Give the backbone structure.
Amino acid sequence: MISMEFAEKFKEVASVLVEITPGGARYWITDTEKVIWQATSQLGYATTLEIGTKLLPNSAASQAIKNKKTMIEEITANGITEINAAIPIFEEDEVVGALCAAFPKAHVLERAFPIFAPMMAEMFPEGVFLWLSDLEKITARQGSKVYDPPEEQVGSLINRYEEAIQCIRDKKPVTTEKYYKDWDITIRMMAAPVFDERDKTKVIGTFGLALPKRVAVKLNAMSDNLTKELEQSAAVIQELAASASEISANQQQLHENIRNILTLSEEINNILAFIKQIADETKMLGLNAAIEAARAGDAGRGFGVVAEEIRKLSDASRETVSKIRELIDRIKAAVEEAERNSDLTLSNSENQAAATEQVSASLAEIMTLAEKLAKIAKKL
């Protein structure tokens, strides 16, 4: 039995006990009808017990007063299960009230949360935020080093999160993915209902986690940019390839034209040789005509003038042939040099066209890889 004097002394230590009791606690003293004193911890309880609250007939306190013995009961209210104990207070042999204590009975997840949550929070490279809640507010939280939203604290209401509300309503896990403009980040949210340990159909809260997707978003953006750049590069390469092929074809035609010029030069030389031969024969003819004109005396004087002109024409023709041959030789030398350069240019053009085609093929392969990268990023 305890006395009212003991109950008064208990008040002095109760304010400390409520804060050091794991999971929180509530202590209160009653007379035979109502609560006359109380102390409630911040952990585990959202509200305090009002002084003057009437005792319920079936409460542990009422039963302890009625039966004059300690009573213990387990009750659930507002999603919280707690163990209540009431000890009758005696004055002499009469019961004048009760000293009561209540301790929240933590769900298995709530008991395990402080153990697994810190380890789980560091398992994700981009960070993760985990929480437990009752039907209204967050009751436990765990952020990671790289992602720990300061606005989400114990006591924060969950009604602003569609995922939590939906999983409570539908009694099944919910997963969503949203872009939050204010934070410039995409978050994957997962919320699962927490069921009462005794009544497996009754939802008493939620367990959830929020996963930022910075890397996936960046990969997706990089993939898009890479694809755009590659498409532009491919277009340029295609133009270069077409130009290179055209240059190669033109160079081939030029090469053929140069060969034709060389052939024409040889033919011109043959014609010049023939002209020289005619000039030599004409000079000989003019010389003979001059001799015959000299023999004819005055009668052949006119013919002698013609013979002299024939010799001059022959000499002029021989001199012209010589100059033309000199020019042809110079043209031939220049053309031969052009042919050598043409051979080299043609080879380079063909190599350039081949190299351009190889680059174009490589770009096509890279574009395929960029598309695969985009698909992988979407799965992250």
